[in-house]
Design a protein that fits this description.
Length: about 1050
């Protein structure tokens, strides 16, 4: 490997030498006596040199792990700068030669010389001309060289070639001329007389300049297009001997009008003179801006490549990374946008951002991209890119839908959880209700659907003439094992809501009462609607005729039941025969090929249980579904929270020691949880390699796990039950140097996907928030004369998980690589699981419910934020009494308090020192500060302080980096808002400029931000009294 590295370094030096030699040649070249072909030859070598550098540099990065990534980036940017300089120098020489030898477009240089037919050259495509005046000169020069002056061709052959080159209007000019050798010159002259018009060609170039497309978003690609369009026309006008040098005023004005607002603003900032700028000045500015954006794209590309590929691939297998653009025929597909084929990332694509969210999802799925980082070669469950900031799920924020958790049929053999049955009562009834309290019964029928083996299986169907297609629930399609196609159909429903469904192969549906059967195409959706009808119908209010009783299409028409199918207009009108029986003024039985169906209006008195609601047929996968109506995410979340609350009340208890024992709040997807053992083992082996390299980290990690075992918070599993549902949690280390007690914590990853793609957190409910907001606690903390703070020792680990649920909290662990991997089971609430925060804080609230003292009840419910206590009283005596009462109550629940601190030295002297726990009472000096819910508090002076860490301006400031800078300053109650408002106004101005998140700011904007942020250092001297 060392020899390979030396060879690559030597080759890289050779590449640099070649580039420097070309630059030196351009510097010393004499424009009066030099051979211009030497310039052209070197110009053609530059792409090859760039490609050789790319291959060589990538090889060095793979072989040399000792060099930091930033150094590799710097080397690439340095080479790119030298390459640009060399290319610009050669282009300048070519332009100088062109200006000195320019000629009229009517006479090409090639037409003056006879072609050397003895040289074997690569084949050249036949030129085409479609009537575009700007292409005439290049066309006629190419045609003359290839055919018109080719003495080896007969005139009739030239005529045929001329006709094959012309398209559209030009072909009409010579169409009427017979194709003979004698008529060739007549046709040739007719064509040149028509298009050999210098004045029209000049006007066409000027019109093209006036029609220059406007840049909407500043990027390297868009600015490059603008630059190319303007310069190609300007250079053409120069070649046509137009006084372009005297056109600075209108060329500069036109260019500025076609630039985006951000780039125009930066141009005005850079050009601070009062006289009229030259066109060369704005052209040079554009060239530099393009180079700056390309350099920024390099950094973004490198960072994202590292995140999306480097972290997930085998450390011994290196993927080739592409950072620089190559010739068009060698562009790496990974750098091309899948929608518009331009060179930018998908999330930067305007066409992609203009799509609706379902259309974006469909595009990402169709191209097999990761739903989190939008890159190829891996899937979301292998991606370490952050989850959606809006909902925390495994997808990109650009793919976020207002989702409703998907429901499936609960497994009766599951461990006790929260079933869907308890959710589908009266809160979201699927029934069309009127304001008067009346309801409409929808037509339902039980039909036979042939499964994969051709065996008829009963399914309950809703008959709907308003649907153009037929639907089946995903659960029903899976139970029947129906074959699917690769075809996905976009559907549009009420309020133009869109969704995508998958089509099944044709399915046979038949009646239970006769020989009727038909073959239909069904489309799979996760959910059709809630149970129909929404309430039990009083059958004594429905008089069923004898002729109907034995021929009911749905014998359970009055009992709420699940809907498996929706039969649309394709078969709806075929089913209805026409006979009907009115049993009341509002109810009617209709005869169909499936049996008699009941429809009509039902009054509230005809329901056993009734509650007015709106029609809410919805797809639970997303409220953006084509079948969604009037269901909000907030309503569903509120319903889930009520279920979790009820589940806690029904299942929690306290053991003989007083400790809380709780059960995990599973949703109905728990039965879909897959195998996770292999994934957890692989993650542990990666962690083990890290611990072996970092000895100090390894010692601290194993000490933490040993404490887990010593405190009986986890136990070794010797005998495993293969039939038991399990889940293995990966774990890793998180260090916090500012912590007084625990510098290292082991965090468990409950979001790691199993073999089915679902994680433990996916099958758990989160639970409601049961404690006050942080703002309310901090404001109340400022009102007391005497205050004290504390926190609960290892709060999560003080609460036990029910033994039946512990199999879903298993881990793999061993102390050293020489030992065998062992299975352990976590016995307590585990940090990293979705319901951990709710279960622990809900136990605290339950403790308050059981307390009889009203003041103590208020403290426990209102002065705790998770495990942190911030409370106070008017006097020291009252505070000390509260201290003793809190200690007593929480100790009985095995929730001990520690890290007691107060602004009163008298109170601190009353709190004893615990020899078993040195952190029971904090012993602080007069200058010491502690973190109080993120705020720095100095108890001795009873003041709040703000500490800004060291800040170094990033090399490339962007809107994203500025937002990160301002958010580093934690001020939850707005104490320093008057200071920070200036920075937030600056950010707001960037928003108005419509700058991209990762666009590099101009030097002037960066300097303004550095001045502002550096001034914040004076906040270190600021102290704000706690008491108000």
């Amino acid at each position: 490997m060392a020899n390979q590295l030396k060879l690559a370094v030597r080759k890289l030096k050779t590449i640099y030498s070649e580039l420097e030699s070309i630059t030196l040649f351009g510097t010393l070249y004499d424009t009066t006596s030099g051979n211009i072909n030497e310039v052209r030859v070197r110009m053609e070598c530059l792409p090859g040199i760039s490609e050789q550098f790319e291959i060589c540099q990538t090889q060095i990065e793979e072989l040399d792990d000792a060099v930091e990534d930033d150094d590799h980036i710097a080397k690439r940017i340095e080479f790119k700068d030298k390459l640009y300089s060399a290319k610009a120098l050669l282009m300048q020489l070519l332009d100088a030669h062109l200006n000195s030898t320019s000629s009229s477009p009517s006479y090409s240089e090639l037409t003056k010389y006879k072609t050397d037919t003895t040289m074997r050259l690569p084949p050249v495509d036949i030129p085409k001309f479609d009537g575009d005046w700007q292409k005439w000169t290049s066309f006629i020069d190419s045609f003359n060289a290839m055919f018109h002056h080719n003495e080896s061709l007969a005139p009739v052959q030239k005529f045929h070639y001329l006709k094959s080159c012309l398209q559209g209007q030009p072909s009409d000019v010579i169409r009427s001329i017979p194709t003979t050798g004698q008529n060739y010159l007549q046709a040739y002259q007719a064509l040149t007389n028509r298009y050999e018009n210098k004045g029209v060609i000049i006007q066409s170039h000027i019109r093209s300049l006036l029609d220059t497309p406007k840049v909407s978003i500043a990027s390297a690609t868009n600015l490059q297009k603008l630059h190319h369009h303007v310069m190609s026309n300007v250079n053409a006008l120069k070649a046509l001997e137009q006084p372009v040098e005297a056109w600075d005023a209108w060329l500069v004005t036109l260019t500025c009008c076609r630039l985006d607002s951000v780039t125009v603003g930066e141009w005005q900032l850079q050009y601070n003179k009062k006289d009229l700028p030259s066109f060369k000045a704005i052209e040079a500015f554009l060239f530099n801006r393009i180079a700056a954006y390309e350099a920024g794209d390099i950094n973004v590309g490198l960072t994202t490549e590292k995140k999306s590929l480097g972290k997930f691939s085998n450390p011994k297998v290196h993927e080739k990374k592409v950072f620089f653009a190559r010739p068009a025929d060698k562009i790496n597909n990974a750098s091309k946008c899948i929608l518009c084929s331009e060179i930018h990332r998908l999330y930067q694509c305007k066409k992609f951002n203009d799509l609706s969210v379902p259309e974006r999802r469909e595009a990402v799925s169709r191209n097999r991209l990761c739903f989190k980082c939008l890159y190829a070669n891996h899937q979301a469950w292998d991606c370490k890119f952050s989850n959606c900031p809006k909902c925390g799920q495994r997808h990109n924020s650009k793919l976020h839908l207002e989702e409703i958790p998907q429901k499936s049929t609960p497994d009766k053999n599951d461990a006790p959880g929260i079933s869907e049955q308890s959710m589908c009562t009266t809160e979201f009834p699927t029934q069309s209700m009127h304001a008067s309290g009346n309801s409409v019964i929808l037509a339902t029928a039980v039909v036979y659907v042939n499964d994969i083996a051709g065996v008829p299986q009963p399914c309950r169907a809703l008959l709907d003439s308003g649907s153009q297609v037929n639907f089946i629930t995903d659960a029903c399609a899976q139970s029947l094992n129906l074959p699917r196609t690769k075809c996905h159909l976009p559907i549009v429903g009420i309020n133009s809501m869109k969704s995508n469904v998958q089509k099944l192969k044709p399915v046979v549906v038949s009646s239970r009462h006769n020989n009727f059967s038909t073959e239909i195409i069904l489309h799979v959706i996760p959910y059709i609607c809630n149970e129909l009808p929404s309430h039990h119908l009083k059958k004594d209010h429905v008089k069923i005729p004898e002729i109907v009783k034995d021929q009911l299409a749905d014998p359970g028409y009055g009992v709420p039941g699940e809907i498996n199918l929706l039969l649309g207009a394709e078969v709806f009108y075929t089913l209805f025969i026409g006979d009907k029986i009115d049993i009341e003024s509002n109810l009617t039985f209709h005869k169909t090929l499936l049996g008699w169906v009941l429809t009509g209006k039902v009054f509230s008195s005809q329901f056993n249980h009734f509650e007015t609601s709106a029609y809410t047929c919805f797809n639970e996968e997303s409220t953006n579904s084509a079948l969604s109506l009037l269901v909000t995410k907030a309503n569903i979340r509120r319903s889930d929270e009520e279920l979790v609350e009820k589940h806690f009340k029904d299942t929690h208890y306290r053991d003989e020691s007083g400790r809380f024992v709780v059960r995990l709040p599973f949703n109905d997807n728990v039965s879909l949880l897959g195998e996770s053992s292999y994934m957890a083992q692989r993650r542990f082996l990666n962690l083990e390699r890290r611990l072996c390299k970092d000895k100090d980290l390894g010692i601290a990690y194993h000490k933490f796990i040993a404490e887990y075992l010593d405190m009986n918070h986890m136990n070794l599993i010797n005998d495993t039950d293969p039939g038991k549902r399990t889940y293995y949690l990966p774990h890793h280390a998180v260090t916090k140097e500012t912590s007084i007690t625990t510098k290292l914590r082991v965090v468990f990853d409950g979001s790691a996907p199993s073999s089915t793609g679902l994680s433990l957190n996916d099958v758990l409910y989160k639970g409601p928030k049961v404690q006050p907001d942080l703002l309310a606690i901090l404001l109340r903390f400022r009102m007391h004369a005497v205050v004290m703070t504390s926190d609960i020792v290892k709060m999560y680990r003080q609460i036990l998980i029910h033994p039946d649920d512990r199999a879903l909290q298993r881990i793999w662990y061993r102390k050293c690589p020489e030992q065998e991997l062992q299975e352990f089971e976590l016995r307590t609430v585990t940090y990293g699981t979705k319901a951990a925060s709710f279960l622990s804080t809900r136990c605290l609230v339950q403790l308050a419910v059981e307390v009889k003292d009203p003041s103590l009840k208020r403290v426990i419910t209102s002065d705790f934020y998770v495990d942190d206590l911030l409370t106070g009283c008017p006097t020291v005596d009252e505070c000390y009494a509260r201290y003793k009462a809190l200690n007593e109550v929480l100790e009985r629940a095995c929730l001990p308090l520690r890290k007691w601190c107060s602004n009163s030295k008298e109170l601190m002297s009353l709190i004893p020192t615990n020899m078993d726990d040195p952190t029971y009472r904090l012993c602080l000096t007069d200058q010491d500060r502690i973190s109080t819910l993120g705020l720095s508090w100095q108890p001795n002076t009873d003041t709040f302080h703000f500490v800004l860490g060291a800040w170094n301006p990033p090399a490339h400031m962007t809107k994203r980096s500025l937002l990160s800078d301002i958010n580093r300053i934690y001020d939850p109650i707005g104490l320093i808002t008057p200071v920070l408002i200036k920075g937030k106004i600056f950010l707001q101005q960037l928003w108005l400029l419509k700058m991209n998140w990762d666009s590099t700011l101009s030097a002037d904007l960066q300097a303004r931000w550095v001045r502002f942020y550096s001034s914040l250092k004076s906040l270190d001297k600021l102290s704000i009294p706690r008491k108000v």
